[in-house]
Amino acid sequence: MTRDPLTVSPKTSITEVIQALAERKISGLPVVDETGKLVGVISETDLMWQESGVTPPAYIMILDSVIFLENPTRYQKDLHKALGQTAGEVMTRDPTTITADQPLPNAARVMHDRNVRRLPVLDEAGHVVGILTRGDIVRAMAAEQA
Known about the structure:
- This protein is of the alpha+beta class.
- The protein has one domain (2-145): CBS-domain, CATH 3.10.580.10.
- The protein is 40% helix and 25% strand.
- It has a 4-stranded mixed β-sheet.
- The longest helix has 12 residues, at 72-83.
- It starts with a strand and ends with a helix.
- The mean pLDDT is 86.
């Protein structure tokens, strides 16, 4: 686990987030409110919408009525991410987290089951005290075998 990871606020600009990720060679950051509580995570995946854009959902028109062939709500969410200018607009809300007292096998299981690449580690008050990545788990496994 990386202790005291770099965090950003919901008002942090996307430009600043991109610079931080590139300079530190990391793939995501916790987003915290003014009290330090976790409100989301912003990752490379969230930022990809900025470059890739959004394709409107498929639809057909019958007698001046639009019938969507996909969920239009998903499109609105994707569009919001593509046009967002701050971390709060682009971040993933309600990220999967763990507490500092969780054993490593439990954290690994959560990451596997939920298909997440990073887990913010929270204290009892919901403040970020660290971040656990897949790489951290692999390094811990290697240390156990040495």
